[in-house]
Specification:
The structure holds 2 protein chains of 2 kinds.
Chain A (H helix, E strand, L loop, with lengths): L1 E7 L10 H13 L4 E6 L17 E6 L6 H11 L5 E4 L2 E5 L9 H11 L7 E6 L7 H15 L5 E6 L9 H4 L4 E6 L6 H10 L6 E4 L2 E5 L9 H10 L4
Parallel strand pairs in A: 1-2, 1-3, 3-5, 6-7, 6-8, 8-10
Antiparallel strand pairs in A: 4-5, 9-10
Helix pairs in contact in A: 3-4
Chain B lengths: L2 E3 L2 E3 L3 E4 L5 E2 L4 H8 L20 E4 L6 H8 L3 H10 L7 H6 L13 H12 L5 E2 L12 E2 L4 H13 L24 H14 L1
Helix pairs in contact in B: 1-2, 5-6, 5-7
């Protein structure tokens, strides 16, 4: 059997940051499809560099619980875990490394679930809210791809990407969409510093629903906290390089 | 039989940390993990080995939550590293290698002087129950060996590197400031480091 290694960012300052990774790991342990389910973090313990220290499985699949396929998935995780790429053979152990959950096409279904749970109707707009960055163009790709998939589902009048730290900015959201109700789905792993604190504050949100100039903005919990993400992780692990 | 690992007191049927309170925590990894995320002062504990475990609690042990599972819940990889250290197979990585491989935000940690690295390790590791064998520390069989500098120490080295040229003025330690908010004046570890730095240069 295979050991599943879930890797997350974690935080030195926010205890909630790693909660989704722990929750999904617990779910996947209960399902029993893996020999073991391990967790490791950039900023918590076990660290990325040591998380496999006690692992004796011949087959390990590493799944990054990250949204972007950028700096962390391409540089930090491989370096800290001493991975050679999608496939690493070390000390009789085969370690397969998948893309991040944010790149898996099935994540669009989780975004739609989040929107529907917030009461999204066919006439509403879905704003897929990503972090983005002005430095790393890779960061935006998965956000745009997910927004495109939500739009292609045809379940809502509009769907598009907005960002915390690049254009189109989240503060311009009501100009980006025409619908009377905009459902904002944060494409973040956790309801941590950004999704849980800075974004609601910057958008002047008053809870799950806020009225702004005759329009309504609904704000959902982060995509990464949805229980369905465990299925996305399982799917990614199943598609790991042979 | 009673034994201790770090701050944990392990008895035949319970695990916990002594203290004035007598709180009983559910004997599951999830419940104990959630409980030890915060210290007695309510602050988040990003470093599992920080000697700030909440006190005055115990959790029952049983077949699904035995002492080994409980110890690994509170101190991840502690037993693995104990076994590997005893067997001489523990992969030990020196601080200079850890700092040299950093990039991005933490790349600047590598410019911290040897003196600064030693002082940073003294401050951060001095607040942790793990024994930094990566730094040549001794570790008894019941101790928890630490084979590699953690991300908290790397983050501290980054801040300390920025203090080298012109140390910030000391501030009174403020226990309300987050344990790992090293950029904030008043952070206890930051102020301890700056005080030691000032004393060394007096």
């Amino acid at each position: 059997m295979t050991t599943l290694a879930l890797v997350g960012h974690g935080s030195h300052l926010n205890a909630n940051s790693s909660a989704p990774v722990h929750a999904h790991a617990a779910t996947l342990r209960r399902r029993g499809r893996f020999e073991d389910v391990l967790t490791g973090f950039w900023k918590e313990e076990p660290s990325l560099s040591r998380m496999l220290d006690g692992c004796t499985s011949a087959d390990v699949v590493v799944v990054p619980v990250f949204i972007s396929n950028g700096y962390f998935t391409k540089t930090v995780i491989p370096r800290e875990m001493r991975l050679d790429g999608p496939l690493t053979q070390r000390d009789g152990q085969r370690i397969r490394y998948t893309g991040p959950v944010g790149a898996d096409e099935s994540l669009a279904g989780v975004i739609i679930e989040r929107a529907l749970e917030a009461g999204a109707r066919p006439e509403d707009a879905i704003a897929v809210l990503g972090h983005g960055t002005r430095r790393e163009s890779e960061s935006e790709k998965n956000v745009y791809a997910m927004a495109k998939r939500v739009r292609a589902s045809g379940r809502f009048a509009e769907a598009g990407a907005v960002f915390l730290d690049q254009e189109p900015g989240m503060l311009d959201m009501l100009e980006v969409f025409r619908a009377g109700t905009v459902v904002v789905v944060p494409l973040f792993v956790a309801d941590g510093w950004h999704a849980g604190q800075t974004i609601p504050a910057d958008l002047s949100l008053e809870g799950a629903e806020t009225r702004k100039g005759g329009r309504i903005v609904r704000y959902t919990p982060a995509v990464g906290t949805h229980p369905s993400l465990a299925a996305v992780i399982e799917r990614l692990a199943g598609s790991a390089a042979e | 039989m009673t034994r201790t690992v770090g701050q944990l007191l392990i008895e035949d049927e319970t695990i916990g940390v002594p203290g004035a309170a007598k709180r009983t925590i559910t004997g599951t990894p999830e419940a104990v993990f959630a409980h030890v995320r915060l210290g007695d002062d309510g602050r988040y504990r990003p470093l599992s080995g920080a000697a700030t475990l909440p006190t005055g609690w115990s959790a029952p042990l049983g077949p699904a939550f035995d002492a080994d599972i409980a110890i690994e819940t509170v101190y991840p990889l502690a037993l693995t590293h104990q076994r590997q250290f005893a067997a001489g197979t523990l992969r030990v990585v020196p601080l200079e290698d850890v700092l040299a491989r950093q990039s991005g935000r933490y790349e600047s940690s590598a410019v911290l002087s040897e003196e600064g690295r030693a002082r940073a390790a003294g401050v951060v590791c001095g607040a942790c129950v793990r024994h930094p064998v990566w730094n040549g520390a001794a570790c008894a069989p019941e101790g928890i060996p630490c084979p590699e500098a953690c991300s908290v120490l790397v983050a501290f080295c980054r801040e300390a590197a920025s203090w080298q040229a012109s140390p910030p003025p000391p501030e009174p330690p403020d226990p309300r400031i987050a344990w790992a908010a090293f950029e904030e004046p008043g952070n206890e570890l930051r102020e301890r480091y700056l005080q030691e730095m000032a004393e060394a240069h007096d």
